[in-house]
């Protein structure tokens, strides 16, 4: 729940920022000189890119949560039995052991979105966020084609 609140708060702050930047771009365009119109258009591009990026990330999070709920209903969510450091972080060796199991599972069933989902969780536990995201995107794509 804490992550959802953080995400919603960050998204709200970004939307406010996009509105402020967009209004500045409009003011620059209204000034009417060649220089201010050029800057105004350039400034308006930033919120457009930001809104697109925020939308894509929100879709990703929503789709990943949907897969997690479906996997939970099936009883297939990975069990978190990883060793933890005193700080609460996952022990790297423990995460690597689980990762090896998940990787083998995914290699045995490369078209199963469930194995890709569990692999994404293992990548995340091993602190490899870019690969975790790619594995989750693969799980989402496989789930969409299975429907």
Automatic annotation (TrEMBL):
It comes from the Bacteria. This is Tetratricopeptide repeat protein. The chain crosses the membrane at residues 7-27, 33-55. The keyword Membrane applies. Keywords: Membrane, Transmembrane, Transmembrane helix.
